[in-house]
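Recall the central idea of this unit: under ordinary conditions, the amino acid sequence of a chain determines the structure it adopts. In this exercise we apply that idea directly, starting from the sequence alone.
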Amino acid sequence: MRTEDVLAAIATGLWRWDNASGTVTLDGEAARLLGLPAEPVVLPEVAVRSRFHPVDWNEINGIVNLAVAEGTLAEARLRIMDVDGRVLRTVHSRSKPVANRTPEGSTDYELIGTIQEIAEPQPGTTAAHTPITGDWRRSREAFLLDAGRALAEARSTAEVLRVAASLSMPGFSPDGLAVFGVAGDRLSIIGHHGHDPGDEGPFSDMPLETDYPAAEVVRTGRAIYLPTPEDYKRRFPASWPLAQRFDRVSWAFLPLIVAGRTMGAWMAAFKHPASFSPDERSVLTTVARMLAQALQRAVVAESERELTTGLQRSMMPQLGPEIPGMRIAARYVPTGGGLQVGGDWYDMIPLPSGRFALVIGDVQGHDVRAAGLMGQLRIAVRAYASEGHRPDAVLSRASRFLAGLCSSPESDPYGDDGGQDSDFLSPRFATCLYVECDPRTGMLEVARAGHPDPAIRMADGTVLMRPTAGGLPLGIVPDTDYPTTRFTLEPGETMMLCTDGLIETGGHDLDTGWARLRAVLESDAHENPHENSYENAYDAPVPGAGRAAGHVAPPHLERLADLLVQAVHGPSSHHTTGPLADRREDDIAVVLLCRESADRGPGTALPHPARPVRRTVLTVAQVEPERIAGVRQQIRELLHDWADPDQVDSAVLMVSEMVTNVLTHTDGDALLVAEASGELGARRLRIEVADGSDELPHKRQPGEMSSSGRGVLLMEMLADAWGVDPRGEGKSIWFELHEQSKTVADPVF
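Accordingly, the structure predicted from this sequence is:
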């Protein structure tokens, strides 16, 4: 005897419920127990769910999810109902959830098991149509709560339609759905479910005067219920041939009304007869109201996203054509929440001199006004730069321009706020960093208005924060001077410009934020295409992390830009949901400028044993003695991997003494050049400090209480070599240190 015969003899059926495809496979006995013809069949999930009592279905859903989580069997009692809502029998289900991984990478499951009839008498009462039935009321309330939650969480029209298609109404479930929208005097289908592709053709665009139920619902604002095909044919004979081919026997057309305006219609079609009792009509009406509100929210959200996308794309700059010897990569990530636009921006500007300028800035705020001011300020900076002004003049004019835009409320000629939001009259400021670059020599001229300093990744991977002279943020004082700092970007080096959102997001301050970014910049992950490759992480349309258009950067430079953003926000899949969503506290803009070397690609390290020279050049002006602390920090960063920490302390001490002497005993500025060359463990450090004075240093014999006169003594004691080189105008004082491992005392036994 076959196993199927044995199971049928004891009233036990087999079923397979595939959650991924939404289909249920039944053998003959299982079909009979569900009130269907006793023959093997494959049915859609909705058709099988409609056979279960709604209360039982809500319970079994939780039982299955628990079994999936715990890896156990799912067992439950289920009441089987006929098309009239009467309980036919009670069955016992025993199933094993089997997890399957879909091609998209998500995990779904199949239920494989048995259902067996429980021999106990049933009263035969109606569970669906009796007004006093507590089960019906409880199931209706549970269904509506679940449907309301699902529709409230839908954020697009497509998601709303998917939720509507998955709704299993208590006691009766439609197997054909369509949502109609109104545009002027035309009716069209927004979406449908339970039909084949192309079936919507005749209904996709029809006048509102058409003899069709959905059109009449929109015209009158009243629902239409058609329990039988005869009712349909009698009331709408012109459109009956179009509906006849779908083999449905009952239809409900309900208006979608929001704030008293009919925005469309919803059709629910049934293959099984539906009488549309008052309770059923109440459920359909409530669902239609929730569906209309969800669609309205989705339309508004999609309009906002479209506006955001258009605004953001219009403000995203073009990096322009490639520049010989230079490569550029850039990213922009707006802040989370609301319209995802903000006040950060970057730009690349061709200059009349044949050079080009890089600009990065941040307007105060993360709102629409900040985005508007950003767009105006970006255009103004581009205009001033294109006229050929120097970096300091560009920022001075931009500050005056922004101060003029952001007038105070007291200057409102209409009194009060003139009917406008006072925030649109309040002063705003902006930080900005303007870099003029000569691509032939790598010379950079930097003017800074309250913005974070640039960072330099040297050819050997060392990262230095480059101190630059700066002034107040733009817009605070209209007439502000912005000093200019010059330095050279050497072949193989990469400069990073960023806004404070890249540094301080996630609870970091400037120091800890720079430390986080330094680890990314100094790592070699971006140079290995097989590790941490994020080349496609930001190909999605904005909003999100935007690539700069119009310029093709090397793959490793693009990966470095992605890694810098991901160090703050995490993987791109977490940009809108998940534990990292709350870390999108501020806009982010980042620009990478890399100067290629003659014999290798940009930013790639030379193979062992050859190593590039590590070099930094700094100028300390007479009016900026406070920058001596920055000089000491630069030397420590330059020698971050030096073998002997005592030699690093000696170098910092001597540099501090040399620069201080220039500012104290001369009338000029101090120019510092530091170079570290050679192989690790055997390098040579040479530091020169030049000034415009012809007076040579001489050795003194300072007393115990003297506060000066020890510079030469320090270099004699600490340097491996030192000297003074006269120049045409002025002199250069230098010293050298040879790297050596710190001596370790012999252990005492």
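The chain has a mean pLDDT of 78.
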